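stage 2 :: seqdesign
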C-alpha cells in the first residue's frame, strides 16, 4: 500500500467539525466521498486533528492509503478532479506521497490556532470573527497569556468528559495582536485539548475587561476546574492555521511540487 498526505483548507460554518458523525456532516466524510469516487476504492482519511463544529482550517493535513502508485502529474490531476467534486467551502491544495509510516496526526510537531475578534461591526468579518463591544486591555491579556508557558496541565480549559489519556500540553507561543479594528490571538502548542483555545480566549478576555486579575487567571489554571474558567467563545472566530511536521515529510511536499 502507498500512503499519501493531503494538504487542504475548509470553512467550517456548515459542518459539525472534522470527524465523521452519525447524524450530521463532518469534513472528513465529504473528503472520503470525493477521494473514493476518483480512486475507485473506499477511502477513509486520517486527519491531523479534530476541529469542533463551526471551526475553520486555513491549513489541515490528512493521509490515506491506496494500492495505486501516482506520479506527480497524476497527483496534480487528482487534486483538480477532487476539487471539482468538493463543495466550494472545502479546498485541496496538494496530494503528495510519504513513507508508509508517516502519520498526519501523530507526526505533527506543533499546531497553531488563531482567534479573531472584531472590535467594531464589519460586514466582511461577520462570518469569521466574534463581534465584541467594549474596551479591552490588550497588554494585560498578553501579560496573562505569558503565564501559560509556565504550565503543562490545562484541565481548566478542556471540555468535560473527554476521552484523553492526558490533559498536558506544551504551549510554545501565545500572543494578542491588534490590526485596526481586528484583535487576533495566536497560540501554538504540541497538542490541544477539546475546546481549549476557545476557553483560553474567553478567560483571557475576562482579564482584558478587568473581571479577573492576572493572579486570578493563574488560579484558574491551577484549579484544574473548567467551572473556574471563562466562557467558550463562539467557534466562528477560530482557525487552525498551521501544522508543522518533520523535514522527512515536508521535503516530500516540496519534491512533489517540482
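stage 2 :: out
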Amino acid at each position: 500500500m502507498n500512503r499519501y498526505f493531503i494538504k487542504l483548507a475548509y470553512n467550517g460554518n456548515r459542518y459539525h467539525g472534522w470527524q465523521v458523525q452519525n447524524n450530521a456532516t463532518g469534513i472528513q466524510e465529504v473528503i472520503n466521498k470525493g477521494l473514493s469516487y476518483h480512486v475507485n476504492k473506499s477511502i477513509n482519511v486520517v486527519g491531523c486533528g479534530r476541529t469542533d463544529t463551526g471551526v475553520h482550517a486555513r491549513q489541515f493535513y490528512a493521509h490515506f492509503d491506496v494500492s495505486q502508485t501516482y506520479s506527480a502529474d497524476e497527483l496534480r490531476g487528482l487534486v483538480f478532479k477532487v476539487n471539482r467534486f468538493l463543495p466550494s467551502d472545502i479546498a485541496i491544495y496538494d496530494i503528495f506521497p510519504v513513507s508508509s509510516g508517516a502519520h498526519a496526526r501523530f507526526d505533527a510537531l506543533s499546531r497553531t490556532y488563531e482567534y479573531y475578534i472584531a472590535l467594531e461591526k464589519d460586514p466582511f468579518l461577520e462570518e469569521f470573527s466574534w463581534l465584541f463591544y467594549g474596551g479591552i486591555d490588550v497588554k494585560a491579556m498578553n501579560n496573562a497569556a505569558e503565564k501559560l508557558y509556565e504550565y503543562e496541565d490545562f484541565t481548566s480549559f478542556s471540555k468535560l468528559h473527554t476521552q484523553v489519556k492526558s490533559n498536558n500540553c506544551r504551549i510554545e507561543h501565545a500572543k494578542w495582536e491588534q490590526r485596526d479594528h481586528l484583535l487576533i490571538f495566536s497560540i501554538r502548542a504540541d497538542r490541544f485539548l477539546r475546546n481549549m483555545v476557545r476557553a483560553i480566549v474567553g478567560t483571557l478576555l475576562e482579564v482584558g475587561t478587568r473581571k479577573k486579575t492576572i493572579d486570578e487567571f493563574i488560579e484558574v489554571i491551577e484549579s484544574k476546574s473548567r467551572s473556574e474558567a471563562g466562557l467558550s467563545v463562539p467557534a466562528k472566530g477560530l482557525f487552525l492555521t498551521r501544522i508543522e511536521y518533520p523535514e522527512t515529510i515536508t521535503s516530500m511536499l516540496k519534491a512533489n511540487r517540482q
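stage 3 :: structure notes
- The mean pLDDT is 94.
- Strands lie at 2-10, 46-47, 56-66, 90-98, 110-118, 130-131, 171-179, 182-189, 238-244.
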